[in-house]
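Researcher: Let's do a round of design. I'm pasting the structure tokens now; please hold your answer until I've finished.
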């Protein structure tokens, strides 16, 4: 129904951002909300996909059209819902994802939350060779610097929202204690660590 929304970014949480258009604040569920930190109170364009359920109408947002296309192909696979698809996109390694699917790398795919061996096999079956017309280059968004502990708290909350287990997040948090990065950078680094573990 909506292809994109253009408006002012007014709020960032661990699970979503809010974009105001003509006095209405739209909640947009995005893969890594803190990627947008440099754009608070500025006009931005977010590509969207609407999911209508019995109990909710949800909008999912993407920095680029190609990111949206990857999401749409992921949710076309049986066993992958929007939340899981966002967790996959949040790793910000679409090239690695496509490579894993095309090379039938089940070990890589099962490192994503809620992706078991059966779903990984289904991803390969449904999506192998299907990304040739999609740009897998990551969307470039400006970074921001935030206070260390607050940013780390926000990052860990975002990882929980993506479906990672508290035990995994606790180890990650311990690793980053005493450092001072933006929430976005904490999330990106943590996701890389989780994929390698």
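Researcher: That's everything. Go ahead.
Model: Designed sequence:
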């Amino acid at each position: 129904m909506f292809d994109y929304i253009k408006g002012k970014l007014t709020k960032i949480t661990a699970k979503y951002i809010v974009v105001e258009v003509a006095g209405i604040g739209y909640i947009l569920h995005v893969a890594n909300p803190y990627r947008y930190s440099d754009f608070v109170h500025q006009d931005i364009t977010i590509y969207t996909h609407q999911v209508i359920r019995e109990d909710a109408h949800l909008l999912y947002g993407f920095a680029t059209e190609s990111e949206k296309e990857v999401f749409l192909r992921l949710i076309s696979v049986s066993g992958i819902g929007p939340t899981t698809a966002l967790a996959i996109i949040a790793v910000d390694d679409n090239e690695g994802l496509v490579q894993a699917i095309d090379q039938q790398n089940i070990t890589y795919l099962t490192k994503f939350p809620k992706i078991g061996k059966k779903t990984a096999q289904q991803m390969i079956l449904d999506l192998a060779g299907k990304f040739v017309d999609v740009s897998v280059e990551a969307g470039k968004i400006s970074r921001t610097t935030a206070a260390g502990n607050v940013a780390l708290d926000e990052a860990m909350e975002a990882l929980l929202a993506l479906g990672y287990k508290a035990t995994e997040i606790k180890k990650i948090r311990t690793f980053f204690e005493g450092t001072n990065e933006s929430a976005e950078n904490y999330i990106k680094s943590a996701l890389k660590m989780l994929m390698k573990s």
